[in-house]
Design a protein that fits this description.
It is a single chain. By secondary structure, the chain is mainly alpha-helical. The protein folds into two domains: 2-29; 36-139, no CATH class. It is 60% helix and 3% strand. It has six helices and two strands; from the N terminus they run ααααααββ. The chain has helices spanning 2-27, 36-46, 49-52, 57-74, 94-106, 113-129; strands at residues 138-139, 145-146. It has a two-stranded antiparallel sheet. α2 (36-46) crosses α6 (113-129) and α4 (57-74) crosses α6 (113-129). The protein is elongated and about 80 Å long.
Length: 149
Amino acid sequence: MAGMLALGVVLAIAAVFVVREAGRIARRPPPALFDFDDAYDYVVEELPDDVAATLTPDDVRRILDFEVEYFQRKGVAGNGSTNGPAGPVVFGGAETIAYILERSAATGESYLPEQVHAVVATQLDYLRAIGAIGPPNRLLDDGRESPTP
């Protein structure tokens, strides 16, 4: 009988810890970890066929390298030692595409904006899949951003 009571106490204590940790994780989930090789594999596999037919795997890697470089310049990519950007950062727009096109041209490679956009869009799908970014924000009437419900 004492053994059953001890087992019940141990299980109750374990349940309290499990519930407490589940609540903590639900309130503040751990940050998503970006793995470049996983992202690269995802993009190569998921890139639309019409674009994949025009890019080599090295082209995709180069575009992704420039995108990560862009992330770092905007302050949203790092090794975990920084607090992140001061405000919202928009990816996948004209600024991102222009940066990648400019950087690739500086290294002697040229891509069409449509090629870069497809790689960036597929990369954003990967970031959403791992929970690194959330849904897009919508603009309020006064121009301020509001999280999508």
